[in-house]
Amino acid sequence: MKKVTFITLALAAGVALSTPTAFARRDDYGRYEVRYDWATVIDVDPIVERTRRPVTRDVCYDQPVDRYEPGYTARRDHTGSTLLGAVIGGALGNQVGKGDGRKAATIAGAVIGGAVGNNASHRRGDYYETSGGYVRDYETRCRQETAWRGGRDVVGYEVTYRYRGDIFHTTMDHHPGNRLRVRVDRGVTPAE
């Protein structure tokens, strides 16, 4: 009977020591003391989620465009104005003179009229559209395209650590490294 009692007591002590309260200390008022220590990290497994996210990019290309390009030429032909002035001047000179003077008046009128017509055409710098056409040009145009990219993102870590011979598990948002700072009170938890 003594053997059974001793084994039972040993089992009960082992269970009591493995519970979290085995690490706790009480102060003079019966409250659990909080202390910090270091635990050894045994295993770290990443928690991975598959993701799909849109990736938008601009796709640009050169679009051919036909545009009309007018051509302008300066028209400075003074011949018509000079001839018209000479004819009008000659006709007026012919009206003025008599006999041999009529020929001289006609010639003088034609010369003076031609000079006036030529001078008038110099002051009037008219431009006339004489040519033009369509020209092939290119414009850069862009549009947005969205492609879906798949990936695997690490969203956390399953951490297994040992403190004073006991094994604990927790989930963390970062990799803890080889050691983990723990808070020891009624239990053993990772310290923030």
TrEMBL record:
It comes from Tahibacter harae. Residues 81-120 form the Glycine zipper 2TM domain. This is Glycine zipper 2TM domain-containing protein. Its main location: membrane. Pfam families: Rick_17kDa_Anti (PF05433). Keywords: Membrane, Signal. It is found in: Membrane. It comes from the Bacteria. Residues 1-24 form the signal peptide.
